[in-house]
Design brief:
By secondary structure, the protein is mainly α. It is built from 21 helices and no strands.
Length: 516
């Protein structure tokens, strides 16, 4: 009997439109180039206009910078090399992939995935992947270069659509950026801007760096449940209908049983990794450890440990990968190991091209001040509406999510708009802790649909490993449901959390009493 095709829903038609429209755009690398040219043009058109905005960070007038002047073009040419090599994700991705490439091509990761899939029920594969993605926030940007590509590998090895695995991991790493059970370096960074803004009203106020830790921990549960449901019930069924995985994929793990030699090699390599982690922990524990900052903190941005996350990823995967390769017989000599590293870099060739144009565009957009001006004007508009506190909190979430499409840096956005929102809500009796929580929700949910996210081109490359035709439109159409549903559910969760009165974090409050 012929199967009756299910009628296409409005969501299917809408996402198909987004995908087709997005994929009709130029190649991602050229798209960033054309966006840079548009930024130059708009900077020249808008620079004569006085928008009456004052940069709260400097107190100076905030105007659009004309990038088409002689000095600016000369600076563009002079700084092009530095802009490219200093592009934040570039070194992170390439160094991490050198180590991960050895672990992958030696067979160590393949063996580990087979073991993991053997003990993990298929129905729990998605939530466990999202949980790992959320916890990866603790290790700076490790989730982008480690967890997201493994999401595709894990799903493919389990007989599921690999792009669904990449999407679930991407949603956990980036869409749930402010959700975590474990404190990370982003907590004190955001708190420092909140406290500075709060001192405009109360010069003596002190905020705990972990003033949102309980909220972000409970938010992790919300993110896991939302991403789990969307992946299994919406995203993967649509991918199975519309996106066919390429044939003859290379270097993708299969579900064959491990031989006795592979099992022995895996456990020896895994024990090697465990020993490396134990040694790292023992090194970090003492209060005077060289891995801590001068104040003894281990999770601050200035701590050597936080600055060493990517080199540590390289070492912790490279050494066990080499051990596995030689014991299993995959490697016969060091030349084989070097060949693995070369192969890993070869797969990054297209990403490097995209990264070049992406770096130039993001640098130009930042220097133009167009994004900063948009953020500031949006904040002033929301302030002028003089809405009730609850509606203003929702407005902060929505505005932040929109501005996040243009200004990717969490700290840069908050440095701009916190001096407006935090004092404004303090005068309405709303604490800086709650205002910060609202900002962190909005700062997360739209990460996964903006090509201005520095790692966005990398995710496209990960998808192209399985479906070569993947473009920016494909990825945006996959991630858009996550973004919209997280925006609604996470905002409602914040309002419910506030209504119940569960503590936001350490020494955090919901109310602020003027002069209190």
């Amino acid at each position: 009997m012929q199967e009756i095709e299910k009628p296409r829903t409005f969501l299917d038609r809408f996402l198909d439109f987004i995908e087709k429209a997005g994929n009709k755009l130029p190649d991602p690398a050229m798209l960033f180039f054309f966006l840079m040219l548009l930024t130059w043009v708009f900077s020249a058109l808008l620079s004569p206009i006085d928008f009456g905005a004052v940069d709260p960070r400097t107190g100076a007038d905030l105007r659009v910078q004309n990038l088409l002047t002689g000095p600016q073009m000369a600076a563009f040419l002079a700084n092009m090399t530095q802009v490219f090599i200093n592009f934040p994700p570039l070194g992170v991705v390439l160094l991490a992939m050198l180590g991960v490439g050895v672990a992958e091509h030696s067979g160590f990761i393949n063996a580990g995935l087979k073991f993991l899939l053997g003990i993990t029920p298929n129905m729990l594969l998605t939530p466990i992947l999202v949980l790992v993605a959320i916890v990866s926030h603790t290790a700076a940007d490790a989730g982008y270069v480690l967890v997201i590509p493994l999401g595709g590998v894990i799903f493919y090895a389990a007989g599921r659509h690999p792009l669904a695995g990449i999407a679930a991991a991407f949603a956990g790493v980036s869409g749930g950026f402010s959700a975590n059970f474990i404190p990370s370096s982003i907590d004190p960074l955001i708190q420092s801007f909140t406290q500075s803004a709060a001192r405009i009203v109360d010069p003596e106020i002190l905020l705990n760096p972990l003033n949102n830790i309980f909220f972000t921990a409970f938010s992790s549960i919300v993110v896991i449940l939302v991403v789990w449901y969307l992946t299994d019930r919406v995203i993967e069924p649509r991918l199975n209908r519309n996106v066919t995985v390429d044939d003859n994929l290379e270097d993708i793990p299969t579900m064959d049983r491990l031989s006795k030699k592979e099992q022995q090699s895996f456990w020896i390599a895994f024990f090697t990794m465990f020993v490396l982690l134990v040694l790292l922990v023992l090194w970090a524990i003492p209060n005077d450890s060289a891995l801590r900052d001068p104040e003894g903190e281990i999770t601050s941005f200035g701590a050597p440990l936080m600055k060493s996350i990517v080199p540590l990823i390289f070492i912790i995967f490279w050494i066990p990968g080499v051990v596995y390769g030689f014991i299993s017989g995959t490697y016969k000599s060091l030349k084989d190991m070097v060949a693995s590293m070369s192969k890993a870099m070869g797969s990054m060739a297209y990403y490097i091209v995209m990264a070049f144009f992406c770096a130039l565009f993001i640098d130009a957009f930042g220097k133009s001040n167009i994004g900063a001006l948009t953020a500031l004007k949006g904040a002033n508009f929301l302030q002028a509406l003089d809405l009730p506190a609850q509606i203003t909190i929702v407005g902060i979430v929505i505005l932040t999510a929109f501005v996040n499409l243009l200004v990717g840096s969490a700290s840069a956005k908050w440095a701009l708009i916190s001096p407006i929102f935090v004092p404004m809500l303090m005068q309405l009796g709303i604490s800086p802790d709650l205002t910060q929580a609202a900002y962190r929700v909005g700062d997360s949910v739209s990460n996964i649909i903006t090509p201005l996210l520095p790692y966005f081109p990398l995710i496209v490359v990960f998808c192209q490993k399985y479906v070569k035709s993947t473009g920016i439109g494909t990825l945006v159409s996959i991630m858009l449901p996550y973004s919209l549903v997280l925006l609604v559910t996470w905002t409602l969760f914040l309002l419910l959390y506030w209504t119940i009165g569960i503590p936001l974090g350490l020494q955090a409050t919901y109310e602020y009493v003027m002069g209190g």
